[in-house]
Amino acid sequence: MLDADDAALDARARRLAEGCGGEVVASTAKVGGGALPLLELPGPAVAVDVALAPALRAGDPPLVGRVADGRLLLDVRTLSDEEADLAAAAVRAARA
Predict the structure, then answer these.
(1) String of b and e for 65-79 (b: at least 16 CB within 10 Å)?
(2) Which of 16, 34, 36, 53 has the smallest count of CB within 10 Å of its CB?
(3) pTM given for the model
(4) C-alpha pair distances (Å), 21 with each of 11, 41, 50, 91
């Protein structure tokens, strides 16, 4: 995940955004632990309505993002393509 290909991340972000009605935005992920606590990795994220956060956290499995600029950001760096499809389904369900 640390050395994920930019093209693969962009494709995964578009896949998630199209599947859930979100918006692809530029973001910076923080590794945040171990040997690289200060490392920041640029890449795409998918922004959705922050009001969805409680429902997504309460899902099974939970979907956790981070809040920035009044939106909930879902970082695709931590998802496989299959998990991106599951995340899109979770966002759609949370909106229902």
Answers:
(1) beeeeebbbbbbbeb
(2) 34
(3) 0.90
(4) 15, 25, 13, 9
